[in-house]
Amino acid sequence: MLHLTHRPRRLRSSDKMRQMVQETRLDVRQLIYPLFISEKVSGRSEISSMPGVAQLSLSSLDQECHSLVQLGINAILLFGIPDQKDENGSQAYAETGIVQRAVRAIKQAAPELIVITDVCLCEYTSHGHCGVVAKEGNRYDVLNDASVELLVKTAISHAAAGADIVAPSDMMDGRVGAIRTALDAQGYTNVALMSYASKFCSAFYGPFRDAAESAPQFGDRRTYQMDPANALEALREVALDVEEGAELLIVKPGLPYLDVLWRVKERFELPTAVYNVSGEYAMVKAAAKMGWIEEQRAVMEMMTGFRRAGADMIITYWAKDVAVWLNS
Ligand code: PBG
User: Fold this and answer.
1) What fold, for 25-327?
2) What is the mean pLDDT of residues 56-61?
3) Is 199 a catalytic residue?
């Protein structure tokens, strides 16, 4: 019982004491807010499975960016929803594509915002896969190298539009090296590469696929996304991306993979982001709506958990709310 006398009670006795010994802090500057820009909507179109999140038109971007800057949010992650989809996702790398136009508009409206672009084909392909697909009857194959070529074109077109960071989320092999090489060769040496280095094949992406209109029309993403059971394999995938030149890493989803986040941060010591994905958002929103959970406390606890597990940055749909809560 003797050890009880050593309980550091006084360290919890007042707010000031608690703040002084707090190990993990959260700062609005660590938040990244995802934005869905659609060619098909005018103004804002709410996403029903993600209350509070909307697809935005190009014309509503100005206002959105200004309110983000006011809240102290420094970085956004852009997803595009094109009007036209085709087999090869050609709107992903068109100079006049939705993301390319959005980046230019944002750089005009709020040059200080760090613009990160999602580099993937799934929102642009008619079949909804992240790469080029060869289909024969009921069988299909996602063609790695052909996909990488288009992903490189996509990343270059984002850089040309003024993106600060490109973030390939497709999980094809070799795409990080190919994108880095192409960026450097074309003079975009200052554009950073943030890799979704370990992206698991997850049920928690469900609502996003509504938001981005990117659900696969057949099959699933199991052949190119990670098995939730494999942490060591995830570390090997991350190692490849680091060797190929990824400067920032993403672990995704967040909540079920905090162990992976911790290991990635410990092992690679690179700036590491966690993606607090759509399903994690939707489930708290739903429970809060039912009166079953206290949203603000639950979210702040989640954010603290991400930070404690090693996240330098948090990609979250709650970024605006968290910014407000941090300031209150
Ligand atoms: C793929 C991509 C996905 C997400 C971000 N980029 C979905 C997928 O792999 O199906 C999910 C993000 C979320 O669920 O919030 N381009």
Assistant:
1) TIM Barrel (3.20.20)
2) 96
3) yes
Question: What does the H/E/C string look like for 225-254?
Answer: CECCCCHHHHHHHHHHHHHHCCCEEEEECC
Strand pairing partners for 158?
A: none
Closest C-alpha residue for ligand 1 atom 9: 205
β-bridge partners, 136: 139
Q: What average pLDDT does the segment 222-240 reach?
A: 91
Domain ranges of the chain: 25-327
pLDDT of residue 293: 98
152 is written with which tokens?
């490189």
What pLDDT band is residue 193 in, cutting at 50, 70 and 90? Answer: very high
- Assess whether pLDDT exceeds 90 at residue 328: no
d(Cα 207, Cα 16) in Å, to the nearest integer? Answer: 40
E-assigned strands of 39-191? Answer: 44-46, 54-56, 75-81, 114-119, 132-136, 139-143, 165-168
Q: How far is the CA of 5 from the centre of ligand 1 (A)?
A: 50
How confident is the model over 158-162, as a mean pLDDT? Answer: 98
Contact partners, residue 21, CB within 8 Å, separation at least 6: 11
